[in-house]
């Protein structure tokens, strides 16, 4: 049976990969971008990838590539894109002003029960969503590039996000085969980009380990951090251009280094015993 409809706003690297993940789970997908040329390119790219995946037996989900492809339609009209959707996954460039503008536009046209979700790598929910009429429905669902291959998704609520939205997003991510983890509150770099540093108790011990085992670890088994940066944008210089500000902010927010003895040592040990590592 067909699943409900979702919308992807922005059909670049991450948007295309999300569209494939949702289609693999049987969801109907509206893939939106500002220019038709980009939408056409994205649909061609997805078609090529899916056929290749089918040939090599790597296609996700129980539907055939053609069936999955028929679930994805392109669109350049935002209103049409979000009509009747249960979840909107925003995947536009990492630029606060641009994303605020887009969420402002969405705020005017969405229903009161759709989930408004951003793929942002390092913009905080309070910066993105504060002041929106539908702020209670907003959340960050940060994937790892590319989400089709790396299942981890960090869910980061705004202080005003309704707990039911977090749960709904968590369930949806599970349904499409992703591996969601919940952050209790927003913090620069979320958990992924400040791994091992959990002084603030932003994430549970089990979820913190998932960040590595279902996220970064899958990637670092094959490629190192420099190749990752190079591939996550259009080359290293473009990566620095896109993420420089965010990287500086995250690194500055790291506090003092723990001494891994005394109280902190005991606390880490208790957590490990609790989750059955020892
Ligand atoms: P990208 O440049 O590949 O794609 C962005 C797309 O947004 C383009 O197709 C562009 O045409 C479109 N766009 C621009 N303005 C728009 C508008 N007003 N409305 C709709 N679409 C518009 O970027 P990306 O790498 O896919 O990143 C998208 C988001 O995902 C960013 O917030 C980024 O931080 C996040 N993210 C990226 C990675 C990564 O490694 N690339 C990983 C996790 C999260």
Q: What ligands can be seen in this structure?
A: nicotinamide-adenine-dinucleotide
How can the largest sheet be summarized?
8 strands, mixed
The count of strands amounts to 8
Radius of gyration: 19 Å
Instruction: Provide the succession of SSEs.
Output: EHEHHEHEHEHEEHEHHHH
Write down the overall geometry.
Answer: globular
Summarize it:
By secondary structure, the chain is of the alpha/beta class. The protein is 47% helix and 15% strand. The termini are far apart.
Question: Any overview of this molecule?
Answer:
By secondary structure, this protein is an alpha/beta fold. Helix content is 47%, strand content 15%. It contains eleven helices and eight strands. Strands 3-2-1-4-5-6-7-8 form an eight-stranded mixed sheet, with helices on both faces. α1 (13-24) packs across α2 (36-55) and α2 packs antiparallel against α3 (65-71). The protein is globular. The model has no long low-confidence stretch (mean pLDDT 93). The site of nicotinamide-adenine-dinucleotide has 22 residues, from α1 and β6.
């Amino acid at each position: 049976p067909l699943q409900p409809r979702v919308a992807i706003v922005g059909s670049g690297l991450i948007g295309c990969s999300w569209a494939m993940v949702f289609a693999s789970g049987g969801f109907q997908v509206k893939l939106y971008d500002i220019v038709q040329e980009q939408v056409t390119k994205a649909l061609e790219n997805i078609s090529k990838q899916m056929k290749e995946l089918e040939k090599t037996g790597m296609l996700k989900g129980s539907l055939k590539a053609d069936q999955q492809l028929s679930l994805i339609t392109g669109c350049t009209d935002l209103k049409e894109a979000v009509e009747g959707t249960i979840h909107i996954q925003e995947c536009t460039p990492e630029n606060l002003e641009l994303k605020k503008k887009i969420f402002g536009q969405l705020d005017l046209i969405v229903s009161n029960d759709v989930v408004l979700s951003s793929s942002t790598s390092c913009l905080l929910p309070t910066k993105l969503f504060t002041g929106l009429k539908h702020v209670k429905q907003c959340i960050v669902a940060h994937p790892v590039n590319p989400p089709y291959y790396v299942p981890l998704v960090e869910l980061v609520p705004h202080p005003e996000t309704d707990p039911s939205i977090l749960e709904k997003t968590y369930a949806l991510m599970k349904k499409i085969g992703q591996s969601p983890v919940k952050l209790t509150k927003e913090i620069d770099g979320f958990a992924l980009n400040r791994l091992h540093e959990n002084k603030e108790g932003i994430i549970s011990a089990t979820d913190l380990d998932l960040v590595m085992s279902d996220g970064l670890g899958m990637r670092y088994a094959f490629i190192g951090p420099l190749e990752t940066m190079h591939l996550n944008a259009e080359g290293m210089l473009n990566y620095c251009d896109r993420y420089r500000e965010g990287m500086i902010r995250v690194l500055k927010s790291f506090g003092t280094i723990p001494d891994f003895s005394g109280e902190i040592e005991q606390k880490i040990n208790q957590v490990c015993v609790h989750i059955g590592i020892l």
